[in-house]
Amino acid sequence: MSILLRISSPAERAGFPLRDEGDGFVHLSHPHQVLTPANALYRGRSDLELLVLDEPALGGAIRVEGGFPHLYGGAVTESAVLDAVSLPCDGDGEIRLALVPMHAGTSPAADLVQGMIDDLAPFYGSIARPDAPTATPEEMWRPTGTYLVGWDDLGQPACGGGIKRLDADTAEIKRMYVVPGARSRGHARRLLTGLEDAARRRGYRRVRLDTGPKQPHALALYTSAGYREIPDYNGNPNATYWAEKAL
């Protein structure tokens, strides 16, 4: 079953159920399509959310027309919303990344996780070694965690990262990765902001992360994003920097 998404807002959700937008159906999207309608219809909006929908709970029928999925005869309700993530615009009004929750054991999320592991192997060896902190697909999944895949304006998965639960108040950011061809475009910062928002939505009061000595760009990002250095909290043998941020 493919992932169905609805570009929405708190105001729209307050008026659920949504049954018909005047065309006889409800407009939906797949992950690779989101930025096209988002920028065509909602450029400059700062209140947008991307809703992940449970297809059976929608009722009705999904028909793909013009490449996009449309819901006929059903309704988008709160009970059909599996997850929600922010869909913010940049300062110029353009929306450049759509973060979509995807299970890290399935493609393309699994490919991004492996890409991150492979990327760091020349510096540290395998970061998935037995004495390293865990970041399993199950840990990075709802209800206590998530893994977000960032889809760019070319409809390609450009980055990914997850959060996992440390305790009732604290989540840890894990496996952040931007594919080589999509670097230096601000996606790492957009991803980090999205992961912080995902932790906040799950009721966490703070997030923690770590990085190693061979990742100066990561260290610069975290410092500029307001993280403060703290003592080693997870025993990561590859890390030299541990940090925390209040949400």
Overall description:
The chain is α+β, with helices and mostly antiparallel strands and 247 residues long. It folds into two domains: 4-86, Protein of unknown function DUF952 (ADP-ribosylation fold, Alpha-Beta Barrel); 98-246, Gcn5-related N-acetyltransferase (GNAT) (Aminopeptidase, 3-Layer(aba) Sandwich). 23% of the residues lie in helices and 29% in strands. The protein contains six helices and 13 strands. It has helices at residues 10-14, 35-42, 55-58, 109-124, 187-201, 216-224; strands spanning 4-8, 26-27, 49-53, 61-65, 68-72, 81-86, 98-101, 146-151, 157-167, 170-178, 206-211, 228-229, 241-246. The strands form three sheets. A seven-stranded mixed sheet has the order 7-8-9-10-11-13-12, sandwiched between helices. β8 and β9 form a beta hairpin. The longest helix has 16 residues, at 109-124.
What overall form do the CA principal axes indicate?
A: elongated
Question: According to CATH, what is the topology of the largest domain?
Answer: Aminopeptidase
CATH class membership of the largest domain: Alpha Beta
Average pLDDT reading: 97
Percentage of β-strand residues: 25-35%
CATH-wise, what's the superfamily of the largest domain? Gcn5-related N-acetyltransferase (GNAT)
DSSP, total strands: 13
Radius of gyration: 18 Å
Secondary structure class reads: alpha+beta
From the N-terminal CA to the C-terminal CA, the straight-line distance is 34 Å
What is the N-to-C order of secondary-structure elements (H for helix, E for strand)?
EHEHEHEEEEHEEEHEHEE
Question: Largest sheet, described in full?
Answer: 7 strands, mixed
